[in-house]
Amino acid sequence: MGGAIHDKKEQMKYLQNRFDMVMNVLESIDPEQAGVEEIDRLLSILDDIEMKCKQFRRDWEE
Fold it and tell me: NCBIfam families in the record, alphabetically (predicted)?
């Protein structure tokens, strides 16, 4: 992807983009045909967001 993000404004922008991605994935899922793959993809994105939130929280404490 890109380099490290240290600016708080850029970190928040990154998180917003990731949440937007979650919303796009949710909106594109057909509930009648959704399967395990879609759920796994959402969980993966949410895991990535959680990891970044923890990283950014450490950065903000410094």
Answer: SE1561_fam
Total structural domains within the chain: 1
In a domain, 2, yes or no: no
Range of the domain at 43: 8-61
10-28 residue pLDDT tens = 999 999 999 999 999 899 9
> How many residues are recorded in the chain?
62
* Structure letter (DSSP) for residue 51: H
Within a domain: 39? yes
What's this model's pTM, rounded to 2 decimal places? 0.77
* Half-sphere exposure in the Cβ direction for 44 (13 Å, CA): 7
Q: Which residue has the higher pLDDT, 1 or 41?
A: 41
Cα–Cα distance measured from residue 20 to residue 25, given in angstroms and rounded to the nearest whole number = 9
